[in-house]
């Protein structure tokens, strides 16, 4: 991950005061690769990296995190800010009917997203919604929307064969007015590539229906082409926002950054599945983490500071300093880890623990297991928790029964506890404990 690679870049300079130009440039080379791997368009990457480099040089390294994490945080903050900082919902506070027009390339997910948004407006916004398909190019496109309308329990405009898009838009608008709909959603025909005849049609529809929202629907797998798509649509109609579909797949979401940079308009929703409930408000911080391939580092660091109280950290540090780390300590660590979003999250955040994280991952420790671990430790007596070595085979069977687990699982925890105790001792030797305490404070 980016965090790990940056850890490598910065290993040399632990403990120095400020981020130097050379170090920042070295780190930003890794960031550049991460962005390109996430499919952010090249010109956008260039601008972004330049901007962040300027901002990062000379910043003091926070005591509580490593320089690598510091750069990740700067990058992630900048990325989040650029993506829009906060989720932006549709602005439909107008004299009804509010008109929402969907545009985009063919196959980007316009029709599906039209139905998803309509369903969301009906359920969450308690709006009366009418949908109309203006797609007379693709066979059965209008029927597709009608079928989705039934699933979404949203009305669709009756189909009149042979009618052209601009006329359908007019008819839809007057039906919406006459029948008291709050929102009219217009699903337009797609374009395989940017085609002037269809662009003209889109402009004509926009001018008769005067949409309050024009949403550009983009497949999140759109790579370097994202800039061209955004530029040509934005040049023809005044977009109010973007919807990024297929974020349920492998896409790292780089298209979000490209879209935002080129259109200057907020990403409003992400599509997260083929079904009609697969729609979420766009969360910039989450997508920034996904683009960088490292989860939400910033909020983790913040949560760490909030969750773990100074005294707990000091108590633990005290025990560690005495070379003690028993199962009571492990249990309170587990509880804190769970509060902070799980083991993987915590391990990836702690300075220098990437190795341990990998070791844990290979033991397939996930959050469900954290809960089982807690159950196992709770089934031990106080004496057993303080001195695990007294756990005989017989005692282990009792603990397994008491916690609804198996002796193997009990053994696994004991082994993990041993590994952690060893690791803690090693960290203490390296002087890493102070850093740990500071992070928790
Ligand atoms: P249009 O040509 O732009 O109207 O695209 P459609 O709405 O017909 O969607 C094309 C295909 O993409 C369909 O098979 C949809 O089920 C699928 N699709 C749309 N949005 C999503 C999404 O968010 N996730 C996934 N996995 N599939 C999607
Ligand atoms: Mg369609």
UniProtKB/TrEMBL annotation:
- What residues bind GTP, as annotated? 104-111, 187-191, 245-248
**Subunit details for this protein?**
Part of the signal recognition particle protein translocation system, which is composed of SRP and FtsY. SRP is a ribonucleoprotein composed of Ffh and a 4.5S RNA molecule.
Source organism of this protein record: Sphingomonas morindae
Name of the molecule in the record: Signal recognition particle protein
Q: What is its main location?
A: membrane
Stated membrane topology is: Peripheral membrane protein
The taxonomy runs: Bacteria, Pseudomonadati, Pseudomonadota, Alphaproteobacteria, Sphingomonadales
Enzyme Commission no: 3.6.5.4
Q: Where is the SRP54-type proteins GTP-binding domain?
A: 266-279
Query: Which keywords accompany this UniProt record?
Result: Cytoplasm, GTP-binding, Hydrolase, Nucleotide-binding, Ribonucleoprotein, RNA-binding, Signal recognition particle
Q: Which Pfam families does UniProt cross-reference here?
A: SRP54, SRP54_N, SRP_SPB
């Amino acid at each position: 991950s980016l965090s790990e690679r940056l850890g490598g870049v910065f290993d040399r300079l632990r403990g120095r005061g400020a981020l130097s130009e050379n170090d920042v440039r070295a780190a930003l080379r890794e960031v550049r690769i991460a962005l390109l791997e996430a499919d952010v368009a090249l010109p956008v990457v260039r601008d972004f990296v330049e901007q962040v480099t300027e901002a990062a040089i000379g910043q003091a390294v926070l005591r509580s995190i490593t320089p690598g994490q510091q750069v990740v945080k700067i990058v992630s903050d900048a990325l989040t800010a650029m993506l829009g900082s906060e989720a932006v919902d549709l602005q439909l506070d107008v004299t009804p009917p509010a008109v929402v027009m969907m545009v985009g390339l063919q196959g980007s997910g316009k029709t599906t997203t039209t139905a998803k948004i309509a369903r969301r407006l009906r359920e969450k916004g308690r709006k009366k919604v009418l949908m109309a398909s203006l797609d007379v190019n693709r066979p059965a496109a209008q029927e597709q929307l009608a079928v989705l309308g039934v699933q979404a329990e949203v009305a669709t405009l009756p189909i009149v064969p042979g009618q052209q898009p601009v006329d359908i838009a007019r008819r839809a608008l007057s039906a919406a007015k006459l029948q008291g709909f709050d929102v009219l959603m217009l699903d337009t025909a797609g374009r395989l590539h940017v085609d002037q005849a269809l662009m003209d049609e889109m402009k004509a529809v926009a001018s008769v229906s005067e949409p309050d929202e024009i949403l550009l629907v983009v497949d999140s797998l759109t790579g370097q082409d994202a800039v061209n798509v955004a530029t040509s649509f934005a040049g023809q109609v005044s977009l109010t926002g973007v919807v990024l579909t297929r974020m349920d797949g492998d896409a790292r979401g780089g298209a979000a950054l490209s879209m935002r940079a080129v259109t200057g308009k907020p990403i409003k929703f992400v599509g997260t599945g083929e079904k009609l409930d697969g729609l979420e408000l766009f969360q910039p911080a989450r997508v920034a983490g996904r683009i960088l391939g490292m989860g939400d580092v910033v909020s983790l660091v913040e949560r760490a500071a909030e969750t773990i109280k100074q005294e707990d950290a000091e108590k633990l540090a005290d025990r560690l300093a005495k070379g003690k780390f028993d199962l009571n300590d492990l249990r309170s660590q587990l509880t804190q880890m769970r509060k902070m979003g799980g083991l993987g999250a915590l391990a990836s955040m702690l300075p220098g623990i990437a190795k341990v994280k990998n070791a844990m991952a290979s033991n397939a420790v996930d959050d469900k297991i954290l809960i089982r671990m807690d159950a196992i430790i709770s089934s031990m007596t106080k004496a057993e928790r303080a001195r695990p070595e007294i756990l005989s085979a017989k005692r282990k069977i009792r603990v397994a029964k008491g916690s609804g687990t198996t002796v193997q699982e009990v053994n696994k925890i004991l082994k993990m506890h041993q590994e952690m105790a060893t690791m803690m001792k090693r960290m203490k030797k390296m002087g890493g404990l102070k850093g740990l305490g500071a992070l928790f404070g």
